[in-house]
Amino acid sequence: RAKPLSRDDRRNAIMEAIVPLIVAHGRSVTSKQIAEAAGVAEGTIYSVFADKDELLEATVHHHLERASMAPKIDELPPGFPLAEV
Description:
The protein is mainly alpha-helical. 67% of the residues lie in helices and 0% in strands. It has one domain (7-72): Tetracycline Repressor, domain 2 (Orthogonal Bundle). α1 (7-25) packs across α2 (31-38) and α1 packs across α4.
């Protein structure tokens, strides 16, 4: 059984877990594959995402947003406290 997480933490954990599946299968990835990769029941996916399309869109957006921040993070001075950002 999956450990208790907040809704946002659960969403993030699922989005992190399925990136390799999206790369390998694209939109044809199944909810069963997603659940197995994330270590949750299929119902858990749909308790934090309305449907598979929302999950895929959120995952792609989340990772593109993070990728666009990388150059900005590299420009920060050494020792900059990222936890405070």
